């Protein structure tokens, strides 16, 4: 009888943890006020993420065992899934796939005189974001149906961004993989607190008039290219 009592006593906290509503846990995770309508448990639940200025996203998660959870995020212009791994002091994601419409991203910090359009397809094997450290992201992003609207309204074809984490910091190699009216190549460097962008744009040989348009985006070069250099602070 004593053994049964002890089993019951030990089982109570386990049952509490397994059935603890996610709405009780989420406020303690300091993930901000953008997450609302939390339902279910920390093992199997759902919530709504309201990104300021955009339509809300439905987020679902399921425990996979150990320290890993599967998750899905769906909404207007967003269809993503992947895994989240419990990691003290960092956000660790893996096997992230899906797509995001460019109008869901705030790209004004990158291109002031033009609005990027199209969609981004993600295939990220691993991503670790921690405060005070450079991001560690390995994978590939493909900008399909890439185009600009605004001061420049032209097709960019398809642009691929290959992400590679290194000890010195995060690097992204950018290049045109399907031709458009404007060709793009260059790189992006991410440190613990800053980013540096160095891109080169070239108008198609049969569209010389485009040079005058893309000149607004950066520094015209003697060989007909336009160099776009940006830098600033990161807000991880």
UniProtKB/TrEMBL annotation:
Keywords: Cell inner membrane, Cell membrane, Membrane, Protein transport, Transmembrane, Transport. GO terms for biological process: protein secretion by the type II secretion system. It is found in: Cell inner membrane. This is Type II secretion system protein N. Belongs to the GSP N family. The lineage of its organism: Bacteria, Pseudomonadati, Pseudomonadota, Gammaproteobacteria, Chromatiales. GO terms for cellular component: plasma membrane; type II protein secretion system complex. InterPro entries: T2SS_protein-GspN (IPR022792).
């Amino acid at each position: 009888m004593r053994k049964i009592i002890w089993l019951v006593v030990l089982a109570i906290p386990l049952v509490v943890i397994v059935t603890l509503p996610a709405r009780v846990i989420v406020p303690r995770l300091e993930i901000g006020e953008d997450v609302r309508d939390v339902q279910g448990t920390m093992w199997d639940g759902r919530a709504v993420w309201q990104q300021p200025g955009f339509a809300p996203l439905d987020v679902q998660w399921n425990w996979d065992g150990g320290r890993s959870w599967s998750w899905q995020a769906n909404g207007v212009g967003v269809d993503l899934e992947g895994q989240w791994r419990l990691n003290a002091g960092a956000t660790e994601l893996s096997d992230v796939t899906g797509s995001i419409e460019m109008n869901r991203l705030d790209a004004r910090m990158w291109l002031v005189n033009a609005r990027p359009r199209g969609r981004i397809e993600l295939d990220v094997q691993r991503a670790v974001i921690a405060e005070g450290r450079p991001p560690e992201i390995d994978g590939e992003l493909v900008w399909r149906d890439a185009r600009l609207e605004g001061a420049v309204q032209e097709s960019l074809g398809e642009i691929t961004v290959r992400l590679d984490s290194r000890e010195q910091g995060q690097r992204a190699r950018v290049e045109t993989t399907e031709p458009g009216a404007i060709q793009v190549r260059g790189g992006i460097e991410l440190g613990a607190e800053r980013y540096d962008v160095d891109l080169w744009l070239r108008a198609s040989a049969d569209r010389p008039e485009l040079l005058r348009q893309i000149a607004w985006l950066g520094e015209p070069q003697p060989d007909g290219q336009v160099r776009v250099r940006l830098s600033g602070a990161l807000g991880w």
